[in-house]
Design brief:
Mean pLDDT: 77
Structural class: mainly alpha
Low-confidence stretches: 1-6
Order of helices and strands: HHEEHHHHH
Radius of gyration: 19 Å
Largest sheet: 2 strands, antiparallel
Number of helices: 7
Strand order of the largest sheet: 1-2
Length: 126
């Protein structure tokens, strides 16, 4: 998963471990967002054009839920107290709004003018 030429390895550029990046790549490949190119100079590539991959779909798959309300676990509060706390419901609504915004954008939208990110992610940045 290293970049080509003088580029730094992708895990170094992104500040993540190689094993974490491999796990993320495996998950993204399992559901068809990316595919692997095996052999010498092997790499990952998008399985579909970047304009057809929703940022929201990727985020929703990878995160499933955003842990916004983890500080309010239901099992730690008595029912009568939970009934008076609107915070978990508000945070669930905020999570839905976040994913709705992300669904309006594609992978292309996120990297289109970000030349540094494109250099890390794409072998031949357009």
């Amino acid at each position: 998963m290293a970049g080509l030429g003088a580029r730094r390895p992708i895990p170094d550029c992104l500040g993540v471990s190689r094993s974490y990046l491999n796990r993320v790549a495996w998950e993204l490949g399992r559901v068809g967002f990316v595919e692997t190119v095996r052999g010498n100079g092997g790499r990952l590539r998008l399985a579909r054009p970047a304009t057809e991959i929703s940022a929201g779909a990727v985020a929703r798959y990878m995160e499933r839920t955003i842990p916004l309300a983890e500080c309010f676990p239901r099992r730690c509060r008595p029912m009568s107290e939970r009934a008076r706390l609107p915070i978990p419901g508000v945070l669930a609504e905020a999570e839905a709004a976040l994913f709705a915004v992300l669904h309006r954008y594609t992978v292309h939208d996120l990297v289109d003018r970000n030349w540094e990110l494109r250099a890390v992610l794409f072998a031949d940045p357009p």
